[in-house]
Amino acid sequence: MTSRITAPRVGGGVDIRRATARDGKRLTRLVRNSRAYEGPYAPMVDGYRVGPDYIETHEVHVAVDRDGRVLGFYALVVTPPELDLLFVADDAQGLGVGRLLVGHLRERARAAGLDRVRIVSHPPAEGFYLGVGAQRIGVVPADPPAVMWDRPELELPVGERGHPVAPGRYAG
Predict the structure, then answer these.
(1) DSSP character at residue 36
(2) Count of helix runs (H) and strand runs (E) in the chain
(3) Contacts of 39 (CB under 8 A, 6+ apart)
(4) pLDDT one digit per residue (tens) for the chain, 172 residues
């Protein structure tokens, strides 16, 4: 199912659709080329792959523009409920794409019967997640050699259908 929505600062519309195995290479490139993972964070995504098996196993949804260009994507793990990945293309950041993806994530989580989703955040992304209504619940300690830094642990309330999560927040 594809839903067309409008990001406040993205010309035209944005489609959010279920990812297919054919999207794997584009999603992998988006992850590996993300400026958010430069410098000390680079080893975490070095060699990372979003493969067809991952896409088929999890709720992976892609935001694309009218030309079919991937603007971002997210991966929701239903059991246990966790946002595993959320990436927005560097040149699409700040345009509302991330908020649209989180709104879509909330809809999918509600449809799966979830009331909240855990997020272990990349440290520089914590402010974004707090801005879309997540609440900090702790810290996940570093786990060398894979992850060399502590990461914020958050929960994103999903809310009930038709009921906003918090005043002024998009709840899907």
Answers:
(1) G
(2) 5, 8
(3) none
(4) 555 444 545 556 899 999 999 999 999 999 999 999 988 888 888 889 999 999 999 999 999 999 999 999 999 999 999 999 999 999 999 999 999 999 999 999 999 999 999 999 999 999 999 999 999 999 999 998 878 999 999 999 997 644 444 433 333 3
N residues, the chain: 172
> Percentages helix, strand, coil for the chain, rounded to the nearest 5?
30, 30, 40
What CA dihedral angle connects 19, 21, 27 and 28, to 10 degrees? 160
Return the number of other C-beta atoms located less than 10 Å from residue 84's C-beta.
16
d(CA 67, CA 22): 16
Locus of tokens 């402010």: 127
Q: What is the pTM of this model?
A: 0.86
